[in-house]
Amino acid sequence: MDSTPLRPASQPHPDEGHPPPPEAVPVSWKSVGPCNSLREPPGGLAEASAGEEAHGEEDPAAAQLDVLRLRSSSVEIREKGSEFLKEELRKAQMELKLKDEECERLSKVREQLEQELEELTASLFEEAHKMVREANMKQAASEKQLKEARGKIDMLQAEVTALKTLVITSTPASPNRELHPQLLSPTKAGPRKGHLRHKSTSSALCPAVCPAAGHALPPDKEGREVDTILFAEFQAWRESPTLDKSCPFLERVYREDVGPCLDFTMQELSALVRAAVEDNTLTIEPVASQTLPAVKVAAVECGSTNGFRAPIDTTCALSGLARACRHRIRLGDSESHYYISPSSRARITAVCNFFTYIRYIQQGLVRQDAEPMFWEIMRLRKEMSLAKLGFFPQEA
């Protein structure tokens, strides 16, 4: 039994109205496991205090043991709570770090997208300005070309009108000299030295030489008859004029007249001349005597003190013969010139006249019946044949 005397029930408790300290109130505890201790519910504490009040206080050693248990349990709870909170804090810090890294990555992505957007916007504006500038330049160039084209159209219309006027006034019997520039060159030979034959006697003895001298017989004194085969081929070509030499009409003319007339000794240059004539890109130019090559001889032989012969004779580029070349040809846009003799010039001119006339027919500039057109073509073929045989009008 405890030797401590019990206080009378009637005496007031010095700490009445206040809860007793933990050391003074004996509480029973029970262990729920090796690491956890729980306090019993308040009802159990009330019952225990009532029993203790009824039976008296327990042994002070037991009370001290309970206090120690309570303190150890509280420390253990605090340590476990601290560890739990630290773990939660560590997880929270880890999540915060991950979110910071994600935010940083998204921020970099946003900055990159903004930079790309700015570059794309700048490039789009630059491309738009470039397209507008090119469109303005193309529009200006198109307007300039349109203006030039309109001017060319007006000029071509005027030229077509003038050509129609010239063609209408030209007939096979009396060709227009402005339409055929080759007719403007002098065709009459100069006076010959020595004895002269009587005009009637000369005409009677050599009627075939008269065309070569430039004195063609009048049409009413020249007999002619239409070849039905040639006329049929011409009419078939006239229905659909073309420069294709595969058609029967032009194939015959090429075979019988154009080919032989342009067949010179220099075959390579002859082929170039023929192609230029077909393409209408050949140019014949008169040459002044000062531009011809001169041959240096003795001063006594030429009768001059400068030691140069009069520049008259040179070599024809087509025949290869030394002749008096007063003309030269140029092929297309080439700057090269080739000196040609009067005979070569006559052959080229005859072929050019034929091609010029059939081009006028193809373009619809010749408004005549079929028979006059046919006889004009026959006359041009006759000129090619005579030029091939060596007959050509002499120049003054």
Characterise this structure.
The protein is mostly helical and 396 residues long. Helix content is 54%, strand content 6%. It contains nine helices and seven strands, in the order ββααααααβαββββαα. The protein has helices at 42-55, 60-168, 199-205, 228-239, 248-261, 267-279, 299-302, 342-362, 370-389, and strands at 30-31, 37-38, 282-286, 313-315, 322-324, 327-331, 338-340. Strands 3-6-7 form a three-stranded antiparallel sheet. A two-stranded antiparallel sheet has the order 1-2. Strands 4-5 form a two-stranded antiparallel ribbon. β4 and β5 (322-324) form a beta hairpin. α5 (248-261) packs parallel to α9 and α8 (342-362) packs antiparallel against α9. The N and C termini lie far apart (178 Å). 12% of the residues are buried.
Using brief descriptors, characterize the structure shown.
single chain; mainly alpha; two-stranded antiparallel ribbon; 54% helix; 6% strand
Name the helicity range.
40-55%
- As a percent range, the share of strand residues is 5-15%
**Quick one: how many beta strands?**
7
Shape: rod-shaped
The secondary-structure class comes to mainly alpha
Number of distinct helices = 9
* Alpha carbon gap, first and last residue: 178 Å
User: How are the strands of the largest sheet arranged?
Assistant: 3-6-7
Low-confidence stretches: 1-19, 21-40, 185-220, 294-312
The main β sheet shows up as: 3 strands, antiparallel
Instruction: Summarize the helix and strand pattern as letters.
Output: EEHHHHHHEHEEEEHH
What's the mean pLDDT score?
Answer: 74
The gyration radius over C-alpha positions equals 64 Å
